Amino acid sequence: MNSSVLVVVGLGNPGPGYAGNRHNVGQMVLDELAARMGTTFKKHKTPNQVAEGRLVPGGPRLVLAKPGSFMNTSGGPVSSVLGFYGATPADLVVVHDELDLPFDTVRLKGNGGHGGHNGLRDIIKATGTNEFTRVRIGIGRPPGRQDPADYVLRDFSPTEKKTLPNLLSDGADAVEAIADLGLLAAQQRIHAPS
């Protein structure tokens, strides 16, 4: 990773109607990070909302980006924000919802396929690589026979909302660990049994 800047993208859909959806948990984690950094999101020259700052003095500069497009077309905004800051996919951390992890679970991954996640699929297509870091925020599988596409576009349940602040904090902690320690040491810390 380029130690001077780390681009952290939170996936989701734009607009207040989607803000509380499970699909937008990546952007919710970025809100937590921005609050920790004492910064706010602003319109940017790229098609993203961007907040910049450092988590610790002397630490890497973090560029937090929320694509202004819908989830399935995240690649263009991600590619443009990387180009704007002179960053490469090696400097990219994507925070996203993950159906294949139980709710309230955070896992870090160095690279790999998209696993059916259309936001990741579009980022891989736009950047030409799957070699970027992912912070996978577990939202669990839909109950019964509910369509996963409907499930991710619904708000968290009342029971989940009680635990959600802890999940968002854990996601932000994971990004902090990546920025401070690098991916491998962050994985050891985040994946260790509690």
UniProtKB/TrEMBL annotation:
Annotated site residues (Discriminates between blocked and unblocked aminoacyl-tRNA) in this chain: 13
Alphabetically ordered keywords of this record: Cytoplasm, Hydrolase, RNA-binding, tRNA-binding
Pfam family of the protein (one): Pept_tRNA_hydro
EC number: 3.1.1.29
Keyword flag Methyltransferase: no
Family recorded in the similarity comment: Belongs to the PTH family.
Protein name: Peptidyl-tRNA hydrolase
Organism name: Curtobacterium pusillum
Lineage per the UniProt record: Bacteria, Bacillati, Actinomycetota, Actinomycetes, Micrococcales
Record gene name: pth
